[in-house]
């Protein structure tokens, strides 16, 4: 039997505040206006008339680029609960904006390191991206794949699969013999090469970053960098769960709406029990995903139970989002396979989100350690 | 407002405890005093054991009284009475019926059971065939029929009964709701043994059982609507309780995993972690449903609670049997017993695996619950109803 008990569940407020409800309403209205389906679909054809206006409306009109920037640095001083509300709406709308990568992930890292000057710039609308490979869910995961080193006073290396570019400012963690360090590099500096790929999810770009430039003085070094990385990645992972919950809710609603209209065999097809039961099961999952994401945001806000809450939220909401999107494609029938339909956008985003900050399997592996459910040992196997 | 309620309640509890010290007061006397103080169920009206306060305040009262060493009304002995009969009687009963039934029910002096399901009316509850015929001279109803899956019938003093009073109209409109005395002549209770070996439930045979018209709840023909009050209470009462992390079935499986490192496999590990996450998601969702109920805004996701609970209980208990390997082949006891209290996580792994099969049947099958969610929450079309406009007596059987 286990020697120590597993972490007890905290008692968290899972209901939205009035401020959060108002915020949700504002974000939903802005995204409905700025993210029409045709424009989102056109992204994959190389036409981007949507990401600029959408981000401008969120960042400048609603001031959400600086949502997590403390007030003393010119931001709104809000927390993970508010960020989760915005992310949930971004997920519903499939918004092609750097909210998660810049306003949550990069910002949380800088806030934890107390980086006043860059935070003030983020508050004014500068965007930032953390230069780690997609799939990185913790400082430990990053250290196993760190691609950049400081060599002869130069920052050298390549990081593949970075999300959140283009951005104005690159946050480059480096793992060296003296421990971790975080360097700030302007994206337009000489010696920075960003090659952007065609991405599975056209609403979120994937790039490789090559660096070969003067290292300069790091923003921070040592354990505080790894601690801040863990904090920022956990915050982003918890907030991503809300994006996934929002995306799943959209898929359910659209599918129910479609099946309530579509007729075959002289009946509204949503009346067939085979479909009703699938949607009822999906409804149960979507409701749970929303609760679990709210729980993760509340845990992050209260700085309690963060590792377990975030791992549960990622393991659960990642799966629900993909399942909801796959069900939406299937239950839209032939329509779900078409380029014009908004459904495939969610499938692609859901599948990319699945990988973005650590797969559900990676988060379950974390949980195995956190709640004392260890894997089989080789000699036992 | 809530703070005001709480401090007011705390004063009432203190007054009750001062006037009736649990250390020196007999159990029955204390419970009667608690009823009179309106602290039995605070969400009930004044004069009926309550104070007309929000329901969630009751837990606070219960905690205070338990901390003071006060006796409770043994709610586990009268689950059907407290959870289903009482809210239905309160909602649809006359003042005389409130006066007659609620107090002894809460005090535990009268135990209740539920006579709804029949061999020919399970999911299709509105098809019940038990007949109640009015005997004008005596102002009584004469009941004949067979009911099934009745827990506590052998202990019960009263039953909530749905019976057919008009076979000449379509099925939903011909039902009425009665409060039937289980000690009356003509009531025969037989244990119904189930696949676990025990008999939690009974079959109840009703032969010319007499029910005074004063024990009819609501109007003649209103039985279906009233039964829905009862059934909605049941769906709230199953799977809605506050639980700590790893409580219930998942805790049993986790303990089995931790106890036997040599039995661990990678496949089982993957399933275990997946189910652990799902159980935690269900726990969190339950917390949110309770928070919504507490502020009077129940969210629709509550309707899916039982659906999820049943599936998880089955998958977890199945995994536990496998994790136990050779010990999973054992069963504690097939003897026919009649447990008064059912514990889904009690006894051994084999029992838990078998008993969990009932979770997706009792209180509405998972299939019917999916229909309900799809139709009432998602607004999808109802099932084709071939029996909707046909007189009950003309339905094929």
From TrEMBL, chain A:
It is an enzyme of class 1 (oxidoreductase). One of its GO terms (molecular function) is oxidoreductase activity. It holds the Pfam family Acyl-CoA_dh_1. Residues 20-117 form the Acyl-CoA dehydrogenase/oxidase N-terminal domain. Its cofactor is FAD. The keyword Nucleotide-binding does not apply. Keywords: FAD, Flavoprotein, Oxidoreductase. InterPro entries: AcylCo_DH-like_C, AcylCo_DH/oxidase_C, AcylCoA_DH/ox_N, AcylCoA_DH/ox_N_sf, AcylCoA_DH/oxidase_NM_dom_sf. Residues 232-369 form the Acyl-CoA dehydrogenase/oxidase C-terminal domain. SUPFAM superfamilies: Acyl-CoA dehydrogenase C-terminal domain-like, Acyl-CoA dehydrogenase NM domain-like. Its EC number is 1.-.-.-. Belongs to the acyl-CoA dehydrogenase family. This is Acyl-CoA dehydrogenase family protein. The lineage of its organism: Bacteria, Bacillati, Actinomycetota, Actinomycetes, Propionibacteriales.
Automatic annotation (TrEMBL), chain B:
Residues 9-109 form the Acyl-CoA dehydrogenase/oxidase N-terminal domain. Residues 113-209 form the Acyl-CoA oxidase/dehydrogenase middle domain. Residues 221-378 form the Acyl-CoA dehydrogenase/oxidase C-terminal domain. Pfam families: Acyl-CoA_dh_1, Acyl-CoA_dh_M, Acyl-CoA_dh_N. Keywords: FAD, Flavoprotein, Oxidoreductase. The keyword Flavoprotein applies. It comes from the Bacteria. Transmembrane segments: none annotated. Its cofactor is FAD. InterPro entries: Acyl-CoA_Oxase/DH_mid-dom, Acyl-CoA_Oxase/DH_mid-dom_sf, AcylCo_DH-like_C, AcylCo_DH/oxidase_C, AcylCoA_DH/ox_N, AcylCoA_DH/ox_N_sf, AcylCoA_DH/oxidase_NM_dom_sf, Mycobact_Acyl-CoA_DH. PANTHER family: ACYL-COA DEHYDROGENASE, ACYL-COA DEHYDROGENASE FADE34. Belongs to the acyl-CoA dehydrogenase family. This is Acyl-CoA dehydrogenase family protein. It comes from Nocardioides cremeus.
């Amino acid at each position: 039997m286990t020697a120590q008990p597993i972490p007890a569940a905290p008692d968290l407020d899972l209901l939205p505040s009035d401020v959060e409800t108002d915020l949700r309403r504002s974000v939903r209205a802005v995204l409905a206006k700025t993210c029409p389906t045709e424009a989102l679909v056109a992204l994959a054809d190389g036409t981007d008339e949507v990401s600029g206006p959408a981000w401008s409306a969120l960042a400048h009109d609603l001031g959400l680029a600086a949502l997590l920037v403390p007030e003393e640095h010119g931001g709104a001083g809000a927390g993970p609960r508010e960020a989760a509300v915005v992310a949930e709406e971004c997920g519903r709308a499939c918004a092609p904006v750097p909210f998660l990568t810049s306003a949550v992930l990069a910002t949380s890292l800088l806030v934890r390191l107390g980086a006043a000057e860059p935070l003030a710039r983020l508050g004014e609308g500068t965007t930032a991206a953390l230069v780690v490979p997609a799939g990185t869910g913790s400082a430990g995961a990053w250290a196993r794949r760190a691609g950049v080193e400081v060599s002869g006073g130069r920052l050298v290396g390549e990081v593949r699969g970075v999300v959140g570019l283009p951005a104005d400012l690159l946050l480059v963690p480096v793992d060296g013999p003296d421990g971790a360090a975080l360097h700030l590099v302007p994206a337009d500096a000489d010696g920075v090469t960003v090659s952007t790929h065609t991405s599975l999810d056209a609403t979120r770009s994937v790039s490789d970053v090559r660096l070969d430039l003067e290292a300069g003085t790091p923003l921070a070094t040592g354990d505080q960098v790894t601690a801040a990385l863990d904090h920022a990645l956990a915050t982003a992972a918890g907030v991503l769960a809300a994006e996934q919950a929002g995306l799943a809710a959209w898929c359910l609603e659209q599918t129910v709406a479609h099946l309530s209209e579509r007729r075959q065999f002289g009946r509204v097809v949503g009346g067939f029990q085979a479909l009703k039961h699938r949607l009822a099961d999906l409804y149960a999952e979507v409701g749970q995903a929303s609760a679990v994401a709210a729980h993760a945001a509340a845990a992050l806000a209260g700085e309690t139970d963060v590792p377990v809450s975030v791992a549960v939220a990622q393991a659960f909401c990642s799966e629900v989002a993909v399942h909801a999107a796959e069900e939406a494609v299937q239950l839209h029938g032939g329509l779900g396979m078409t380029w014009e339909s908004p459904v495939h956008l969610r499938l692609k985003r859901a599948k990319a989100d699945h990988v973005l900050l650590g797969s559900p399997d990676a988060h379950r592996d974390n949980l195995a350690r956190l709640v004392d459910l260890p894997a089989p040992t080789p000699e036992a196997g | 407002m809530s703070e005001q309620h709480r401090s007011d309640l705390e004063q009432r509890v203190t007054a009750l405890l001062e006037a009736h010290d649990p250390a020196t007061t007999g159990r029955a006397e204390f419970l009667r005093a608690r009823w009179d103080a309106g602290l039995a169920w605070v969400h009930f009206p004044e004069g009926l054991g309550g104070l007309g306060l929000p329901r969630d305040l009751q837990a606070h009262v219960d905690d205070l009284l338990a901390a003071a060493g006060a006796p409770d009304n043994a709610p586990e002995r009268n689950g059907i009475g407290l959870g289903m009969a009482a809210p239905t009687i309160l909602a649809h009963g006359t003042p005389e019926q409130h006066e007659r039934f609620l107090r002894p029910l809460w005090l535990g002096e009268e135990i209740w059971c539920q006579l709804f399901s029949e061999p020919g009316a399970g999911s299709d509850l509105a098809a019940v065939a038990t007949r109640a015929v009015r005997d004008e001279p005596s102002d009584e109803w004469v009941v004949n029929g067979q009911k099934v899956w009745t827990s506590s019938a052998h202990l019960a003093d009263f039953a909530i009964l749905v019976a057919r009073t008009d076979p000449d109209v379509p099925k939903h409109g011909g039902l009425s709701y009665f409060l039937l005395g289980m000690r009356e002549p003509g009531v025969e209770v037989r244990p119904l043994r189930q696949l676990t070996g025990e008999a939690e439930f009974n079959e109840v045979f009703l032969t010319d059982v007499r029910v005074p018209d004063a024990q009819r709840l609501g109007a003649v023909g209103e039985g279906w609507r009233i039964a829905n009050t009862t059934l909605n209470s049941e769906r709230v009462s199953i799977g809605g309780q506050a639980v700590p992390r790893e409580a219930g079935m998942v805790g049993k499986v986790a303990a089995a995993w931790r106890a036997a490192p040599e039995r661990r496999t990678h496949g089982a590990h993957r399933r275990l972690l997946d189910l652990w996450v799902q159980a935690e998601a269900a726990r969190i969702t339950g917390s949110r449903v309770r928070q919504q109920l507490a502020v009077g805004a129940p969210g629709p996701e509550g309707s899916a609670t039982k659906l999820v609970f049943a599936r998880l209980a089955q998958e977890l208990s199945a995994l536990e049997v496998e994790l136990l390997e050779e010990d999973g082949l054992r069963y504690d006891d097939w003897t026919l017993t009649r447990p008064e209290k059912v514990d889904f996580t009690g006894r051994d792994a084999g029992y838990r695996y078998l008993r969990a099969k009932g979770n997706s049947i009792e209180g509405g099958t998972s299939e019917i619950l999916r229909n309900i969610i799809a139709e009432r929450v998602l607004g999808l079309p109802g099932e084709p109803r071939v029996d909707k406009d046909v007189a009950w007596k003309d339905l094929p059987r």
